[in-house]
Amino acid sequence: MLPGITKTTIAAGYTQASEVLTKAVARAAEQLGLNKTLLARLLGLSPATVTRIYTGDYMLDPARKEWEFGLLLVRMFRALDAIVADEASARAWLASKNSGLNGRPIDLITQTEGLVRVVHYLDASRAVV
Description:
By secondary structure, this protein is mainly alpha-helical. It has helices spanning 7-32, 36-43, 47-55, 65-84, 87-95, 105-108, 112-127. The protein is globular, with a radius of gyration of 16 Å.
């Protein structure tokens, strides 16, 4: 271990990162109009656990897959926000049929492959300037 870095310091860093990502996931889901059931499916958690996220009683765990799915959701939100810049347009885009993705993004993001495809699609769309 590096000098001056203790297990307590590392644990505090994980706790802070967990709080930040958990709040970002909840905020992104709210702004995209994702209900708790859909968010639970997306993160691989139970609806009760998602409710605990919103009350602050549960933080995403960096050692579990929910962390990676949360990062992807926030990445998707940020890319979509950069492209459309308002909640109504983002929600409409998610609910609309997309020929490039061969489906509605809102339906695709509940599966791992679909979420990754949507993120890559948005990243590619955002890169074209």
